[in-house]
From TrEMBL:
<keyword id="KW-0812">Transmembrane</keyword>
<dbReference type="InterPro" id="IPR036866">
    <property type="entry name" value="RibonucZ/Hydroxyglut_hydro"/>
</dbReference>
<feature type="transmembrane region" description="Helical">
    <location>
        <begin position="307"/>
        <end position="340"/>
    </location>
</feature>
<feature type="transmembrane region" description="Helical">
    <location>
        <begin position="26"/>
        <end position="43"/>
    </location>
</feature>
<dbReference type="InterPro" id="IPR052159">
    <property type="entry name" value="Competence_DNA_uptake"/>
</dbReference>
<dbReference type="Pfam" id="PF00753">
    <property type="entry name" value="Lactamase_B"/>
</dbReference>
<dbReference type="Pfam" id="PF03772">
    <property type="entry name" value="Competence"/>
</dbReference>
<feature type="transmembrane region" description="Helical">
    <location>
        <begin position="393"/>
        <end position="415"/>
    </location>
</feature>
<keyword id="KW-0472">Membrane</keyword>
<dbReference type="InterPro" id="IPR001279">
    <property type="entry name" value="Metallo-B-lactamas"/>
</dbReference>
<feature type="domain" description="Metallo-beta-lactamase">
    <location>
        <begin position="507"/>
        <end position="688"/>
    </location>
</feature>
<keyword id="KW-1133">Transmembrane helix</keyword>
<feature type="transmembrane region" description="Helical">
    <location>
        <begin position="352"/>
        <end position="372"/>
    </location>
</feature>
<feature type="transmembrane region" description="Helical">
    <location>
        <begin position="223"/>
        <end position="242"/>
    </location>
</feature>
<keyword id="KW-1003">Cell membrane</keyword>
<dbReference type="InterPro" id="IPR004477">
    <property type="entry name" value="ComEC_N"/>
</dbReference>
<protein>
    <submittedName>
        <fullName>ComEC family protein</fullName>
    </submittedName>
</protein>
Length: 753
């Protein structure tokens, strides 16, 4: 059996980890393993099937191994020996639990500790004895948005937590941490120190947000990660160095293997210095696979090498299939192979400089066009300025900046300080020039919504059809294919349909009401130092779903309900705002107010116009009605206000669905209110690990006893209710729209605090 065939078997076997709704149990996987081994031994003609099943079980065992700590350690108070592996800011630490209650852990589960600084300044490599309240990883889940839970599991971090006590056991920092610390001190005098440190050794935590945004908008973010581009450059420098040394050696000492091995070792050292972060680690594994294939003496095609590299990455770490960066790296390399095989550069008779420029344009054009499907799927947009930006930035960084930084690193540990300072200064000035150029480019980032996911595949199809002369062979098939790919653009939803979506924003509230491509928001989520729900989630969600917001209903003034208001108004200044706050520019939202929007009737039933209430009990309660179905949005109203509302306006409260008041607090959702609403479903927005243990078990029981179907964002993620003349339907993201094993609720089923 040929190696590429085995590689294909490994890829096919492990890929189901990405879409399995549930993992087979260990017993089932063990039975499949035994059957697959027997199949490989006995049925030689179908050995590949058994091998694929073995790789599938290998992936299942890896996934089961990572979720065991999440299910067994969650909610427990642990006496743990923790090794610090990374630090983000002053209160977030990434660690490995080496020992738990005195027992050695193999493998050591990863954990993220947050919310508290260590008693003494910590560094990577230190070992601390801690008392930890561990929690299973749990992330917000909204359609098309960043999936934090999947990301954490892909990095083998199934636990989060806080420590109540920490005592340093071993204060020795790792060798790499010490080296990076000395480099950081040496770079302190230079304005672009953070970018230089990121490019030199992969320390990107302190790169300013403005720079990260600029790199994304110009399509040059890939230059900041120590990945294949940097690893290849270092390997090439090592190869050139050894080849130069070989020129003065006797002939018997000269061979083609020595430069390859030396270049790989140099690249490995650089990858270690960069912290062996996932992109660098994948690059060095791929380089090692390529080296072994090259040393075998056989001739391998680019696709065979690509398959072997992807298979090696997945076999060594099956959970890498969950990372977006692996898909980007694999797809980018496949794009280059395809582009150069199907659209090779023109052979022109011109000087070297022009030929090099044409080759660079050809390369960047191919990457820009063929990476569109993944670019749109992951980042929900593209940069129109990425072509000119990369034409300048790629050679600027790879041929100028990186060699200078590497020289500076070497001189920092070996050479004279004067020469080192000149190198750093020149590298700093080069970055100044690069970012001046990037800032001078016009605004190029273009948000792209879900409707274009089919259309961005067209460049691939055009190239294939052109090379196969498909325009004349299969015109009808091409027309049908084009129609299907563009269908989302011209498809129109029935005007009678409308929907209500409760976004998963954590301990806050944001509900989006949509009809005919327009949207209204009831509350805008929460805010925190340096960000808010609108910036991180609501605005990207609206743009991805091609929705134009027209107004905001603000229930009350608490920050978990109005956190994203200012950001939304900056993005769409024409938005109108209704609230009971009597703030400048706000329309009133008091009992008796009603208005029409897109054929829906909105009626405010609380608070009273002359109310003296503040906070939760001044929440604007709104009933949305299409004439047949209705939704009652209640904000954070509590029992005292519920009773007052029932006594003043009880006849207008009956609704099909209700947003559970005050996140399911026991101070809300009185039995009288539930009886008066007489609804069929209740939707609660809260965070799993909240300090108030919302939603209350008593409240959930109260709704259940009145025959309400219960949905909450910790269990279901984003919840969408679709209304049509035929009826209404609830779709929850975690267990209906996008059910995956890595989206499950790990740990204690009732743990919400």
């Amino acid at each position: 059996m040929r190696l590429p065939t085995i590689a294909i078997s490994a890829i096919i076997g492990i890929c189901p980890l990405f879409w399995l709704p549930q993992l087979p149990s260990v017993d089932v996987a063990g039975t499949i393993t035994l059957g697959a081994i027997a199949f490989v031994i006995i049925a030689r003609r179908f050995r590949i099937v058994g091998l694929t099943a073995l790789f599938f079980c290998w992936g299942v065992f890896a996934a089961q191994k990572i979720i065991i700590p999440a299910n067994t350690l969650s909610g427990r108070l642990l006496q743990a020996e923790v090794e610090i592996v990374a630090i983000d800011g002053e209160t977030t630490y990434y660690g490995k639990l080496l020992r738990i209650n005195g027992q050695r852990q193999i493998p050591a589960p990863g954990i993220v500790l947050y919310g508290q600084a260590l008693p003494e300044k910590g560094c990577v490599g230190q070992i601390w004895q801690m008392t930890i309240k561990a929690r299973a990883v749990h992330g917000l889940l909204n359609e098309g948005m960043f999936d934090g839970q999947r990301y954490a599991l892909s990095l083998h971090r199934p636990l989060t937590g806080r420590f109540t006590h920490a005592n340093r056991v071993d204060g020795q920092c790792s060798i790499r941490s010490q080296l990076v610390s000395t480099l950081a001190k040496a770079l302190e005098p230079y304005p672009w120190q953070h970018v230089m440190l990121a490019l030199a050794v992969g320390e990107r935590a302190d790169v300013p947000t403005e720079i990260k945004r600029l790199l994304q908008e110009t399509g040059t973010s890939h230059l900041m990660a120590i990945s294949g581009l940097h690893i290849s450059l270092v390997a090439m420098m090592g190869w050139v160095l050894i080849r130069g040394i070989q020129r003065v050696l006797p002939c018997r000492w000269i061979g083609w293997r020595m430069p390859l091995c030396a270049s790989f070792l140099l690249a490995l050292m650089y990858a270690w210095l960069s912290g062996l972060q996932p992109p660098a680690l994948r690059s060095i594994i791929a380089a090692g696979v390529w080296l072994l294939l090259r040393l075998s003496g056989r001739r391998w095609t680019p696709w065979e090498v690509w398959l072997c590299c992807i298979a090696a990455l997945l076999v060594l770490d099956p959970l890498a299939i969950l990372t977006q960066s692996l898909w980007l790296s694999a797809f980018a390399v496949a794009t280059l192979i395809f582009w150069y095989q199907w659209m090779p550069p023109l052979r022109l008779q011109c000087n070297v400089i022009i030929k090099g420029l044409i080759s660079l344009v050809h390369l960047q054009l191919g990457l820009m066009l063929l990476l569109l499907p993944l670019q749109v799927s992951i980042f929900h947009g593209m940069s129109w300025t990425s072509l000119p930006a990369n034409l300048v930035a790629v050679p600027w960084v790879t041929l100028g900046e990186i060699p200078l930084l590497l020289a500076g690193v070497v001189l920092h540990f070996t050479g004279p300080a004067t020469m080192e300072s000149y190198i750093w200064l020149l590298a700093d000035r080069l970055l100044e020039g690069l970012f001046w150029f990037l800032r001078a480019l016009p605004q190029g980032w273009q948000d792209i919504d879900y409707r274009w996911q089919g259309i961005v595949v067209i460049p691939w199809l055009v190239i294939i059809l052109w090379r196969l002369n498909g325009w004349t062979r299969w015109p009808a098939s091409i027309l049908a294919c084009g129609t299907l790919l563009t269908f989302p653009l011209w498809r129109q939803l029935p005007p009678q349909m409308w929907s209500v979506t409760m976004l998963d924003v954590g301990q806050g509230l944001s509900v989006v009401i949509t009809r005919n491509g327009k949207a209204l928001l009831y509350d805008t989520g929460l805010a925190w130092p340096g960000g808010d729900s609108a910036q991180q989630l609501i605005i990207p969600w609206l743009r991805w779903h091609h929705l134009q917001p027209e107004g905001i209903i603000l229930s009350h003034e608490h920050l978990d309900h109005r956190g994203g208001l200012e950001t939304l108004l900056k993005t769409w200044p024409a938005l109108w705002v209704r609230s009971p706050l009597k703030w400048e520019g706000h329309l009133p939202c008091f009992r008796g107010e009603s208005w029409r929007w897109q054929g829906l009737t909105f009626r405010a039933v609380w608070p009273l116009p002359d109310t003296m209430e503040k906070g939760n009990n001044r929440s604007c309660v709104v009933r949305v009605d299409d004439g047949r179905y209705s939704v009652l949005l209640t904000g954070d109203i509590e029992i005292s206000a519920e009773m007052s509302m029932l006594s003043h306006y009880w006849q207008h409260l009956a609704s099909t669905l209700v947003q559970v008041p005050h996140h399911g607090s026991s101070t809300s959702s009185s039995l009288a209110l539930l009886q008066r609403i007489d609804g069929q479903a209740a939707l609660a927005s809260t965070a799993r690990y909240n300090a108030w243990h919302f939603p209350s078990a008593k409240v959930k029981t109260r709704y259940s006893q009145r025959n309400y179907r219960w949905f909450d964002t910790p269990h279901q993620g984003q919840v969408t209710v679709n209304f049509s003349p035929e009826g209404w339907q609830i779709q929850s993201l975690r267990d209906q729209i996008y059910p995956r094993w890595y989206h499950q609720w790990f740990g204690d089923a009732g743990d919400n605090g």
